[in-house]
Known about the structure:
The complex is a heterotetramer, with two copies of chain A and two copies of chain C.
Chain A: H1 45-49, H2 64-69, H3 74-99, H4 113-120, E1 128-130, H5 136-141, H6 146-154, H7 186-201, E2 207-212, H8 219-231, E3 235-241, E4 244-245, E5 248-249, H9 250-254, H10 260-266, E6 271-275, H11 279-294, E7 300-305, H12 326-329, H13 335-345, H14 351-373, H15 399-408
Parallel strand pairs in A: 1-2, 2-3, 3-7, 6-7
Antiparallel strand pairs in A: 4-5
Helix pairs in contact in A: 3-4, 3-13, 3-14, 4-11, 6-14, 7-8
Chain C: E1 2-3, H1 6-20, E2 24-28, H2 44-48, E3 53-55, H3 60-73, E4 76-80, H4 91-97, H5 101-104, E5 114-119, H6 134-138, E6 144-146, H7 151-163, E7 168-173, E8 199-200, E9 213-216, E10 221-225, H8 229-240, E11 244-248, E12 251-253, H9 257-267, E13 270-277, H10 282-294, E14 303-307, H11 317-320, H12 324-336
Parallel strand pairs in C: 2-3, 2-4, 4-5, 5-7, 6-7, 10-11, 10-13, 13-14
Antiparallel strand pairs in C: 1-8, 6-12, 9-11
One magnesium ion binds near residues 212, 214, 242, 245 and 308 of chain A.
Amino acid sequence: xxxxxxxxxxxxxxxxxxxxxxxxxxxxxxxxxxxxxxxxxxxxxxxxxxxxxxxxxxxxxxxxxxxxxxxxxxxxxxxxxxxxxxxxxxxxxxxxxxxxxxxxxxxxxxxxxxxxxxxxxxxxxxxxxxxxxxxxxxxxxxxxxxxxxxxxxxxxxxxxxxxxxxxxxxxxxxxxxxxxxxxxxxxxxxxxxxxxxxxxxxxxxxxxxxxxxxxxxxxxxxxxxxxxxxxxxxxxxxxxxxxxxxxxxxxxxxxxxxxxxxxxxxxxxxxxxxxxxxxxxxxxxxxxxxxxxxxxxxxxxxxxxxxxxxxxxxxxxxxxxxxxxxxxxxxxxxxxxxxxxxxxxxxxxxxxxxxxxxxxxxxxxxxxxxxxxxxxxxxxxxxxxxxxxxxxxxxxxxxxxxxxxxxxxx
Amino acid sequence: xxxxxxxxxxxxxxxxxxxxxxxxxxxxxxxxxxxxxxxxxxxxxxxxxxxxxxxxxxxxxxxxxxxxxxxxxxxxxxxxxxxxxxxxxxxxxxxxxxxxxxxxxxxxxxxxxxxxxxxxxxxxxxxxxxxxxxxxxxxxxxxxxxxxxxxxxxxxxxxxxxxxxxxxxxxxxxxxxxxxxxxxxxxxxxxxxxxxxxxxxxxxxxxxxxxxxxxxxxxxxxxxxxxxxxxxxxxxxxxxxxxxxxxxxxxxxxxxxxxxxxxxxxxxxxxxxxxxxxxxxxxxxxxxxxxxxxxxxxxxxxxxxxxxxxxxxxxxxxxxxxxxxxxxxxxxxxxxxxxxxxxxxxxxxxxxxxxxxxxxxxxxxxxxxxxxxxxxxxxxxxxxxxxxxxxxxxxxxxxxxxxxxxxxxx
Amino acid sequence: xxxxxxxxxxxxxxxxxxxxxxxxxxxxxxxxxxxxxxxxxxxxxxxxxxxxxxxxxxxxxxxxxxxxxxxxxxxxxxxxxxxxxxxxxxxxxxxxxxxxxxxxxxxxxxxxxxxxxxxxxxxxxxxxxxxxxxxxxxxxxxxxxxxxxxxxxxxxxxxxxxxxxxxxxxxxxxxxxxxxxxxxxxxxxxxxxxxxxxxxxxxxxxxxxxxxxxxxxxxxxxxxxxxxxxxxxxxxxxxxxxxxxxxxxxxxxxxxxxxxxxxxxxxxxxxxxxxxxxxxxxxxxxxxxxxxxxxxxxxxxxxxxxxxxxxxxxxxxxxxxxxxxxxxxxxxxxxxx
Amino acid sequence: xxxxxxxxxxxxxxxxxxxxxxxxxxxxxxxxxxxxxxxxxxxxxxxxxxxxxxxxxxxxxxxxxxxxxxxxxxxxxxxxxxxxxxxxxxxxxxxxxxxxxxxxxxxxxxxxxxxxxxxxxxxxxxxxxxxxxxxxxxxxxxxxxxxxxxxxxxxxxxxxxxxxxxxxxxxxxxxxxxxxxxxxxxxxxxxxxxxxxxxxxxxxxxxxxxxxxxxxxxxxxxxxxxxxxxxxxxxxxxxxxxxxxxxxxxxxxxxxxxxxxxxxxxxxxxxxxxxxxxxxxxxxxxxxxxxxxxxxxxxxxxxxxxxxxxxxxxxxxxxxxxxxxxxxxxxxxxxxx
Lengths: 410, 410, 337, 337
Ligand SMILES: Cc1ncc(C[n+]2csc(CCOP(=O)(O)OP(=O)(O)O)c2C)c(N)n1
Ligand SMILES: Cc1ncc(C[n+]2csc(CCOP(=O)(O)OP(=O)(O)O)c2C)c(N)n1
Ligand SMILES: [Mg+2]
Ligand SMILES: [Mg+2]
């Protein structure tokens, strides 16, 4: 009777099917130009539909964005590489601790580290990230100390949040890291509000909003894009497209949109799409976008194209919904490997130093982990006092909370 | 200190300033081609940024869309013209009744009548509109009887909704008119759900969603566009851009978006922008879009470009926020005048017949109004029994509502 | 002293705060150039400029979400939701974000924000211009919930709310924007200029959050009310000829339980009024607290007079609105026992 | 008869309805291919195809908004919100649209839709995986609100909910998905296979909405509970050695007041339990109704044992969760009077 049939987006491959990334177009590095800082949305089409890449297959930076970036000091790159390795050490140790029941929950960011790592280094003191749960690397790259970081993960007395929040829901105002919410999307528009405050108060700072590909579907992605388009505050709207939202393929969030960057264009927000596993591309585009925002040319959206190599969280097993070897086959490679290759190519790094750095960092993390675990784990909990429950619900504790605290025995 | 400054969109003119529509580009009629029914979003750019117009300045249909439409039977056009005149008669009489205190609230649709009027005639029995409060013309064009329509406006015992809803929040399932909600945006995604049900049950019907330019800012505009893009149900997503949302200029909802149609493109929903005051253009594009949806080529968005000539509602006085003579200066003219000119040009109408038709319709409406008023007005209310409050909260009245009804004295 | 309507008093509060604190900012749908559909912000954009008072797109979660970001940064946004009936798209931002930001960040980030919204019925607004959603906010730890019943209180409470370090839901009973309403919709309307509470100082003052006001002292029965229902209570007490104490709660969260308990311990009888639907309305909370605190003083069950558990109807508005006669009947019933 | 966990029982309910009614359709985040993060829909897509069971984008107002459109058309959507904590973006659609569609259209359009969501704490989920929002739905006329406490009830209630002509909010106490939980988080967990209520028929049956179950008969005191708290109540009664009657409400709206009143008239004492924050929680409504209906039978004030009025903490979960010892203390206190 009817010609209308619904469609249901599918990933290219399911478990026990051969990995298939033939749908992913990987343009050559260096093709796209560097647009002027005042890039208008109408002129952003090639950037929103293309893919900005800086390192070629051998790790050599090529093209206009490489020029724009200039030769990054080797120390800065080594710092980036080390931060990524440190993040992997934390992920490894904490995933392990979770498996041992020492913490209730953990989330890795394997494969996506270059994005936050390179982005953070382009920010200034006082700029504010509104991160998702998968952006711990922003803290690492901002040199947030390991003690409070791991303390939060163990919810023990080293936790600056006194156990109130689920592990990885950090908050570190002084490190430009806004309190993470578990509700997807909500913070995207808050970032725009923060950026409006920056402009209204003229403090010269900017905000950086973060969202996953899956969460672009949330209503506040829309409310944020719209608000940014209307008021033109200094905000960088980051979209981390890692192809998956728990078990759900990115196509379900994308529908027939060509790219997430292109969706931003519909709002009149200029947007670029970037190889998120290319540390140099991330550095270059971050610098450009942050400068654009700070100089008063308004908001910009960036789709960072990457792949969530690990499970969604410690509660998830991706082998139930995608081929086991998908991560290895990801056409944009691994961000650590690629930066390492580039540094080696520049004569600024070696396989040996890499192995050694990895070992040192794992050691460092393990050491701190031990100290932090001595302050309590889920097996041997030493949370902050139960009265923490009542503190900070309001600035001043109202009568009824005082009564409830008494009822609790304090 | 800071370079970042916020922007605040402004209308071209405020009260006591000269009307200024220089920002509105009116392309010649007949320029745009008729795309294939399976138009892909990537190919829709010219349609989403341009403006489909059929009648030239003399009222003669020109170009590919005129051809696509063919010569519409004069009877059909006269019916359309009469429906628009009838709508104006209703608006006039009811606005008046509101001023006399006979009803609490009213909303006119002056200047926008061609859109719903021509669209409705392209639908089939069983298709469902999800209208806003400003789409009463859909009911008129569907030959909904005046008694229940006016009964609803007076909330008297002729009201099919038994007084439950604010005037103009009609519901008429048999006439393809979904129950209007006062909450903006919410029904846009419901229309997509209804269309999904059409496809899943294979009933060959389609849904038509309606939203105002201001309400495109609402979250469910986003959730609807996204859902339509993902599942590809048979839905036409109408956006009535009448330049105003109460006192707020359309630029506040648009931000830096070029057009609302272009915003839909960001979701991968093909979109067209149409002269909404051109009865023939509305007829042609409606036919195309409805056929596309019914044939299973998926959703399509249409931005109907028009002007809200009257006040937002009976509670509003637009002279406080826009020049008094803006409506007269609207570059796309008046839909009634334009269709009339076309019909006269075709030798199928005359000034005399027009005046006479207007008088007849006003008479008809006035007659019915009198009869309906005899069933109660706000001055002399005869609402349905207070027990209507308790009926239909649930299919079966639960105990606690039975108790409350008793408490009320019934 | 100046006589003001509640609308003017609210405007005056924003005016005072806009002028004495550069961090205060006002925005919402139609609030900028036009000054709001109820005119509460009329003239403020002209006076303070577009950066301080502006129009927003029709997106309530954006309005509140932006405000949260600004408040966390250190500003003091005071935003308007055009009708309380339209706050639901912002419910996620208010309850999951604003309410918990201080707590979850252990005070690193806070949210000194006010969300104003016209509330309640009595204006023939039908189900989408008449709702009273207070109980949906009183259930949420971290919020404060305020509802004034006079121009004087409206200004003083709004200034206190803007100065408060935490998010405040500020409900404005629109039926009494222009004058007190004694429940007789067919009767003559009384303007605020004819009521002593219409006297409002031009300058800065506060009415502290968290304190109820005793509108009428009485010995026989306690009536708990807020917003429009305070006046319905006054008229009902007159009609019933009962020596009732009328308490205007003013702040629902945190609640001034001490004032309530002192009264009910004295009277031994209590009736609770609100316009919202009955089930799980704020009246339930009041009763739960009062019966626990005053159990041994109670001489009769506590009763509620509320809106019915149905959507707010348009034509049958006065059958839905808790009328003077329903209140009188409840008072009589409680006195019987 | 088969032994099922609550998850399996819920899946079986959907399976039964998918197979016997072509209008039934199941969707939500991760519910399709993967079968839901709690696996409630595992296998259903493989069995019924993608048109009947599918994944959605992460947009709860779309999930519910689409379901409303489908339900109005005549289908019977049964959708999942991944955690009750994420229902707020859909709150507008649920409360302003689904709940009122039948009424406002005078029965032209109806909304036979079920919104399932895992609710409650006890799984170390922190503030965004532990909330109990039932009171935010019981305040809304037009909704039904259900919360099972056993696999048997879960299946029978879910089938009844899917067959119900009106929108049903179906709260699933996730702490007891796999077994009853007696409040001792450090103790051994009991699987449903070891509990008689784990016996669940494979076929169609219903547990009618609107009827409470008496889980334990007793003469001295009535405990009103639902979801996980039913088991905490059982343990507390054992420990306290009080002959309490435990009523499992199962449906909160409409409430089975008759069963409650009969019990409290008998016992004269009542304690109400829930995990949600106290102020304006559903306990308040229960107390308001019970004190009115049973006033002359009451021998002590009604007490509530609930979550504290604070966000649900992660590390201090067991200080927040209404513990056996808190319930025991409340029982003792009520018996004192
Ligand atoms: C409003 C809301 N709905 C659902 C969830 C549950 N949830 C947590 S993470 C997640 C997937 C998010 O995917 P994506 O945005 O792509 O981020 P990624 O995990 O890939 O970094 C979902 C559905 C949530 N946290 N909030
Ligand atoms: C969620 C919500 N927010 C606010 C309102 C108040 N309101 C009613 S109509 C309107 C303007 C709508 O403008 P537009 O969508 O352009 O439609 P038009 O009136 O021009 O037809 C507003 C803000 C509402 N009804 N619902
Ligand atoms: Mg993702
Ligand atoms: Mg408009």
